[in-house]
Amino acid sequence: MKTTERRSTCPINYSVEIFGDKWMLLLLRDIMFNGKNSFLEFRASDEKISSAVLTEKLNILLNEGIVSKVTSPKNASKFLYLITDKGIELVPVMVEILKWGSRYNPDGGPKTWLDRIKSNEKKAITELQDELRNHRNSFA
Q: What is the pTM of this model?
């Protein structure tokens, strides 16, 4: 894993240096809530991330141990980006961001997940974490 120079040892600084731009949170959204795992799936998102930016952001997530990169079992020339346990620990944070965004932008958001969260947030978080682990483990 590549080490990155940090501006300080502050935990908030560490988090901001990883997640301090929209693309990182959108990639995590796509992995966690939309089941995306491949470069082309990420590129197909509504926000239209460029290939160069996507490559840079995926490399940061890889270097930080938030995702791992594996060869697709269906196509040896295709890579899949699978969330690690470190990344799965971010699910409650992403749920809070989702809830906040849906409160102030009620037209958006993954309705299925919002409904599950509103019904029983703790259960929804646990189920999402389990689904992500099971999906990742299906490629092991």
A: 0.88
